[in-house]
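This section describes the prediction task in plain terms. A model, or a person checking by hand, is given the sequence of a single protein chain and must write out its three-dimensional structure as a string of tokens. No templates, partner chains or ligands are provided. The sample shown here is typical of the held-out split.
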Amino acid sequence: MERFPQFASAMGNEVILEAGDALYLPNNWFHHIISLELNFQCNTRSGWGDEYMQEIRECGFDTKPS
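The expected answer:
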């Protein structure tokens, strides 16, 4: 919280997926997964596009690696 104080006011969503469902999360979206049964996931990164970075900066997050 010290490094990213605006994170304290972040809001979350709960999504429950059923067999055959898929969920897309854009680059840089925080997420936490709880699996109740066997599941599979596929992750890919499309890179650091400028169109996403401005929104991340506006949220108060530093986008440069430390």
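For orientation: The chain has a mean pLDDT of 77.
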